[in-house]
Request: fold
Amino acid sequence: MFKNRILLFHLITALVVIIWGTTFVSTKVLIQHGLGPIEIMFYRFVLAYFCLLMVSHKRLWADNWKDEFMLMLSGLTGGTFYFIAENTALGITQASNVALLVCTTPIFTALLVHWIFKEPLRRNMIIGSIIALIGVGLVVFSGSVLLQINPLGDFLSIMAALMWAVYCLILKPLGKKYPTAFITRKVFLYSVISLLVYFLFDPLQVKTEVLFHPVVTLNLLFLGIVASMLCFIAWNAAVKVLGPSRTANYIYVQPFSTLVLSSIILSEVITLASMIGALCIIGGVYLAEKE
Reply:
């Protein structure tokens, strides 16, 4: 029974990352219709928060101020800081650089778990992570050896990876004390609050005619309800069951899912290097998860 539960959460985590891989296409559609990356993040988090509030509203605050502060940090690291760093990096460096560097998240997570919680670094996890990261490189660059270095953009990409790793670590102790829906709702709340502060310096321009365009509305609903609310709940539950390191390893699958979706929807060609990279990702994640 226990093994079946573990397998179920492995499958759920893989599905979550596949869905997150599709958000690049959805976000691109919204940008083409006139919305900015920060606007998109704000709308999807507001939508996710209020949807969660309808089903999880009995508890409003944590048991103490320390836990409430940790919940605030989870919202900042897993929400605001991560997305702002990633989206800003996409604006000043190659998307391929960002996709590759953000996939260092599992490595950061494993090192932080080892450093803070004193968990040993498993040999299979290290070798599997290296194989999967090589696979990510093959998928992202599709066999091209061209790598343009942009110090600021690449630094922000690494910071995004580090923020998500810290987010996963914060979830570990919180998951033992609070329901997953409550934690997820607080993540969105503090993300929204921090973005409201951001808008004091760069005011939000509400484009009503754009928001009610059918394509924009449908994509925002997908990003807010499916990719944010449901996927964050599933991811946070997986971290509680599988642990931060094991869950984070599935980040490697994201470029692979983006590759497949881009081929289906955008008619992009899948190269031999990409196919080899996909096999490396699958094999690497399997090895990393193996005891």
Remarks:
- Residues 96 and 140 are 5 Å apart (CA to CA).
- The chain has a mean pLDDT of 84.
- The two ends are 18 Å apart (CA to CA).
- The first helix runs from residue 2 to 32.
